[in-house]
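Quick log. Single chain, no ligands specified.
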Amino acid sequence: MTTADPTPGVQAAPALPRRTLAGYSLGSLVTGAFGTVPGLLLLPYLTDTLGVAAGVAGLLVLLPKAWDVLVNPIAGRISDRRGDRRSFLLIAGLLLAVLFAAIFAGPVSSGAGAGAYVAVAFLAAATAYAFFQVPYVAMPAELTDGYAERTRLMTWRVAVLALAILISGALAPLVVEQTGGGLTGHRWAGVFVGALIVVGALGVYFGTRSVDSHSVEAVEPDLRSQLRVAAANGPFRALLLLWLIQAVGIGTMLAGVQYFADHVVERESGATFLFAAFVGPALLVMPLWSRVGKRVGKPRSLAAGSLVFAAGALALLAAPSLPPVGVYLLVAVIGVGYAGQQVFAMAMLPDCIAHDTARTGRRQAGVFTGLWTAGETLGLALGPGLYALVLQVFGYVSSSTGQAAQQDDTARLGVLLGFTVLPAVLVGAAVVLLRAYRDVGR
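-> predicted structure:
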């Protein structure tokens, strides 16, 4: 039998079949689309199509995602109790597809009423997403006990995640533009992303139907007891805090893509080209990151990816004086760092869960991933809210025409700083938290 984990001192585990790797990774079409497109389109949709003030728009984007911070641990406990996580992937995934399209299918009016509709629809979609994402993220700890095999599984997952970000992030703004822009264009974009979510939900459900999951019912009697167990896991605490802070940085950058394209790059379909530059190289370097992880370990590789991301974002401060090709090259560097940061953080999570199982004798993957996804959701929600606050402070002018209003130099500076310095500081500074992380997977 083919085995993985040849690293000295690491017990070998059977290699996962390619069908399982491919089937599981298809779920990233769902997580990639929902994790990317709201952060990319929703804030500009509110400010530049519905005419909502930047500060209020940021709050409308934040609150539904903040709700998931409460829902995700509950979703984790429920999926632990049920044991069969695949049913959650199918039902919640299909429901999410419908609700996502509904976010952009609201009333034709602009202003407070339209903004309130978007907030309610986004809240419903975020709730459905919690019941997909938490069981999905819990599965790797139950699919394999292998230290290196988890990295292999995450490499496949992040490769499809990058592809999902490319497809949804690059094409959704293009769909808006090519179908008339404004309300009509955003409705078509909602339908497009909803269809992509359907493909991902069906793919992961049928692609993992032959998997022998190790999931068992949680032993702890209540959610509070389970959360205490998670809090006692030192490596998990350090990794979760890093993940949350870096999610804020990534969410800030995602929220700024359209603004950066409109007011700094100033090129037609600039957001699409930025996403292509971000994701394309990331797909190419995935095998390289896998080799780096085998050579120096996951924590050091996570630090390296994070610092590459931060260095590229800081260098992008020079964007106003660079030609578009120079901007896209720097964005490609950021994408290379992002790929490493995602692969190794996600691969270290199941290591922490396995460490807890060995320590307590209980499998509670859903509780850990509920907290993990809650942290990610909160970070990705705080990012757009933080970016909106920067826009408000720097005097960004909203519009209800479907086109961005002309901005003065101060507002354009806010667009630039929010897209470069803020993400660089958040993603780079979080690396110090790895000093409290012990490599528990080996």
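The radius of gyration is 21 Å.
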